[in-house]
UniProtKB/TrEMBL annotation, chains A, B:
It holds the Pfam family NifU_N. Residues 1-122 form the NIF system FeS cluster assembly NifU N-terminal domain. GO terms for biological process: iron-sulfur cluster assembly. GO terms for molecular function: iron ion binding; iron-sulfur cluster binding. This is Fe-S cluster assembly scaffold protein NifU. It comes from the Bacteria.
UniProtKB/TrEMBL annotation, chains C, D:
It comes from Desulfomonile tiedjei. It is an enzyme of class 2 (transferase). Its cofactor is pyridoxal 5'-phosphate. This is cysteine desulfurase. InterPro entries: Aminotrans_V_dom, Cysteine_dSase, PyrdxlP-dep_Trfase, PyrdxlP-dep_Trfase_major, PyrdxlP-dep_Trfase_small. Belongs to the class-V pyridoxal-phosphate-dependent aminotransferase family. NifS/IscS subfamily. Catalyzes the removal of elemental sulfur atoms from cysteine to produce alanine. Seems to participate in the biosynthesis of the nitrogenase metalloclusters by providing the inorganic sulfur required for the Fe-S core formation. Keywords: Iron, Iron-sulfur, Metal-binding, Pyridoxal phosphate, Transferase. Its EC number is 2.8.1.7. Residues 5-365 form the Aminotransferase class V domain. It catalyses: (sulfur carrier)-H + L-cysteine = (sulfur carrier)-SH + L-alanine.
Amino acid sequence: MYSDIVMEHFKNPRNVGEIPDADGVGEVGNPACGDIMAFYIKVNGNILEDVKFKTFGCGAAIAVSSMVSEMAIGKTLEEAMQITNNSVIEALNGLPKKKHHCSNLGADALHRAIEDFRSKQQGRQMEKPVDGPEVCSCPVCDVNDPEEAPYCNTACGHSSPK
Amino acid sequence: MYSDIVMEHFKNPRNVGEIPDADGVGEVGNPACGDIMAFYIKVNGNILEDVKFKTFGCGAAIAVSSMVSEMAIGKTLEEAMQITNNSVIEALNGLPKKKHHCSNLGADALHRAIEDFRSKQQGRQMEKPVDGPEVCSCPVCDVNDPEEAPYCNTACGHSSPK
Amino acid sequence: MRIINMDHVAASPLLPQVVDAMMPFLTEKFGNPSSMHSLGEEVTETLDEARGKVAALINAKDHEIVFTSGGTESNNWALKGICQASRSRGNHLITSSVEHFSIMHAIKALEKQGVEVTRLPVDKYGIVDPDDVKRAITPRTVLVSVMHANNEIGSIQPIAEIGRIARELSIPFHTDAVATAGVIPVDVEALNADLLSLSANAFYGPLGSGALYVRKGVKIAPLLDGGIQEGGLRAGTENVLGIVGMSKAAEIAAVEMESRIAHLIPLRDRLIKEIPAAIEEVELVGHPTQRLPGNVSVVVRYVEGESMLLFLDMEGIKIASGSACISRSLKVSHVMLAMGIDAGTAQGSLLFTLGKDNADQDVDEVVRILPPVVQKLRDMSPLYKKTSKFKTIT
Amino acid sequence: MRIINMDHVAASPLLPQVVDAMMPFLTEKFGNPSSMHSLGEEVTETLDEARGKVAALINAKDHEIVFTSGGTESNNWALKGICQASRSRGNHLITSSVEHFSIMHAIKALEKQGVEVTRLPVDKYGIVDPDDVKRAITPRTVLVSVMHANNEIGSIQPIAEIGRIARELSIPFHTDAVATAGVIPVDVEALNADLLSLSANAFYGPLGSGALYVRKGVKIAPLLDGGIQEGGLRAGTENVLGIVGMSKAAEIAAVEMESRIAHLIPLRDRLIKEIPAAIEEVELVGHPTQRLPGNVSVVVRYVEGESMLLFLDMEGIKIASGSACISRSLKVSHVMLAMGIDAGTAQGSLLFTLGKDNADQDVDEVVRILPPVVQKLRDMSPLYKKTSKFKTIT
Ligand SMILES: Cc1ncc(COP(=O)(O)O)c(C=O)c1O
Ligand SMILES: Cc1ncc(COP(=O)(O)O)c(C=O)c1O
């Protein structure tokens, strides 16, 4: 199911942990959907000097977190904000479609940590981030499924009517 | 599907043919249901001296006709009227359930020929017999199925509602 | 005794390559494609490949193929699933009067629930007039379902044309291609089909395996609700063995189709010519040329199908018949009745469905064995006028 | 690496005797049971025998067994077929809140069509209170459907008692016995069941084969309309291979059941005792003793199921989980939620389903391999409080 790179990062995740005196912290996800990611950053000038994470989640979530941390370290904040879901998926040599929502979380958590850092710098308290995806993704066509159906009701090619 | 006796009678049916100057003739069935049997009898005193038949129908219909003719020859008219569906089936060592309706025709045709003989004797014209079963039997539970369903709707253990 | 199987419509033997492909799934590859671990994954991969092979057979995209338990499920699902999904749009169905039981009786079940149905007539060859389809369409029509070819009489319908008419009016079009998919070219694009049923045994795959093609964008309700197998459209643990067999058979059918057809048509045409030449009062049923390459359907007057079939069976020749005695419904084929053949004549139905292993000598045998069988039964038949009135045959 | 399959709920390997029984039907016995000639007849006989063997497994009569494409079809058919057939009597269903998706979603589909549903709660062990069934029954109730045992948590329901309550009020009672038939004694008389679903793979038969028991006299509409296979109740050419395999597996299950259970329970109970002894904050899910002989369901706090499963897979241990990431629905098990387990905790679900070939050394391996896997993942988890706040594990 997972590519070799994903499995490598899953088995040996880079940069796991917390940073006690982090300059920024970002957390996304909720346990109901199965994934929580917390990112910790250390900023030097405009550069991400250190990035660490803790992740509760599936294999993809762990690999994505690890890959995001590796991609981010040494980058400028602006560059790090450019890390997208797709670039992470690409760097991982692809993810199963139904796991795409996990990769969103990785970049999101990093971006939140950077926003947290910027807010602090501006002396503002970052508004409490809304909790990750309230609805979990459709495994079939990867759109949010607002309903209780076990499969996507809306955007897949074949859709099952209500 | 068929017993050895059925197959024997089917392969080598006894008493096939017509009797040109028959004392009684009985015909039942219709081509829509797949079976027509015509019985010809020659009566001597009270005894069925000769019985012949012609049958259009399935293997069971032919075997039943042949068996009925054999059972009838030499019997008194009263005895022949006692030949029942069940006694024919028994003599044939059983018939598949869905073929039971064929066996009804054999005894019926013989009985009609006898009635025809009796009517003629009494100088009456036998009333034109109603044509065989207007509805064909249920293959599953062997009751008449008045409707267009492909299976019995009424009396089987499991029944499928309208 | 050599067995001559000319009843391929009932069952065709599995290809040896199909059996080989299935073997690992009888033993070491026993996983469930829903499992997350390696036992499941190897099977998931196989199912993905299988989907591709079946899709390729009918020029569909992989995700448009949904595996089912056979043609009957595919047909029931197409009809009931579309009606269910289209309640707000309408409740009118158009179909033909020569469909397979799995269409005919599914539609009757829908009728009992208030769905309105137009059953199109057919001509003496059993063929629907596309203009009738056009005329039958109303603003409340939610589906047109006309079979691609009829298994009993062999006639091939003008499906591409019917599909075009439905497409122009944006009405989903379903075709029961159980008799054609894997047998003659079937292309969902060329046929303008939105839904298409197929069954594996038609092309030497296992019994009880089939698929429904559902064009991307077509809204259909599941018939089997439950887990998220088949993209949420058809729940239930997959019949992996059947799917693997079907897909291998599909792969081979795509390659061999042309040569199979070239082999079958001359055999078919020999029977069509030689049976009536050898037996009087025998007529071909269905269209003489617009027909399935292996299908020979005739009626033999004055005799009933089962009795002929039994004598042929004893001689090793395996065929079918649309007679009432043979049908488990004990009714004569509705297809022949719809074509205007009377019930009595239809009882004399014989259906030869040839397969790739039939040969010229099989045709020779049929033409040798059938005439005396028919004569023996005609001599016994009260309907056969030509026999000497007083002759007995014992 | 030795493979330790503890995911028998997903798939169990076929018994060698089952494979042997199926082999002739891959080759020479390719007939269609609907055929009139000898090729069909030998298969018809086989199906008759098969029906008898499956019937014997659950103490039913032969003609009360209808073959289907698996548990999902059986469940869908029981619910939809009874509702359809009972329209004049009522439109209320009673079920539990811990049913398999194939019941749960079939019922949701019926609800959309206006059927009213009572979903009974369960206690912390996932067990329904029969008194709740009694209280839920109304004059419009047409069916009670409660599963025999839950595949995910192992708990066995008081089905005989629920069946007795339904029987006293003449309401048909269906039980989804997919997790129990062929595994523990299932007797339709003792359970007071009117309809009962089973699936072949639960007892080492092929995937995608099942049956519905329909008590004589119960009125049910077909789900698959068409030909007269299965007494007119379930149309479609039979999956002969699957049926043959299922029936052989049923025959063997009846004989071996007692010894299989005696083998499984000690293994199960070792895992139930030894996993929580080796790993803190692990809890058993489901009833400790009223449970399937091979079922061990636990939740491991602070970690997510798929990640544990992947590490175990790499070590050759194959198991399942009810976590959201693993479910194709991306939702955490509704069964655990119904039992009052919160969604976060349920993500740590691990499901071991043992089979007849598991041995003590397999349990040893699990108890050896699982703890460091859990520790590694807990050290990575933002939810795990006990880890030193600044420790990294790379
Ligand atoms: C034209 C047609 N449609 C549907 C079916 C039903 O397919 P299955 O027997 O696979 O259910 C058949 C079976 O012969 C058929 O010939
Ligand atoms: C309790 C229960 N019911 C129904 C089913 C569905 O059976 P199938 O997968 O054969 O369709 C399952 C499958 O695991 C099950 O565990």
